[in-house]
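> run fold Biopolymer transporter ExbD
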Amino acid sequence: MRRNNKAAAEDEAQIDLTPMLDVVFIMLIFFIVTASFIKEAGVEVNRPEASTAQPKENVNILVAITATNEIWMDQRRIDVRAVRANIERLHAENPKGAVVIQADNESNTKTVTEVLDAAREAGVYDVSLATEDK
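> ok
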């Protein structure tokens, strides 16, 4: 008879984790739905101002060029020779997307032109230069 009392006491001492797991899954779903999925190039640049700036839809490839002419894609620094391969890879993931070049005010035109040419060589002709509104 003592064994039955001990087994009954163990059953009562166990904690039911099902409600806690339900709450955790609901919170997980909430944070996934409310999170913003914005692609970033990896660095902050001071974009030039333009009076004809327009918002761009379907942007999935961002290329940032810093004031020291470093090229950043997908939050990592890349060499100018690797720009074409990276754009081809990202364009294959979303063929309807566009390329936006975020060049710093102090960056060289040569670097911007090399990135633009690499995008065109990769088969992407929807290429834009990001600017700030005046």
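The helical segments are 2-13, 18-34, 83-93, 109-121.
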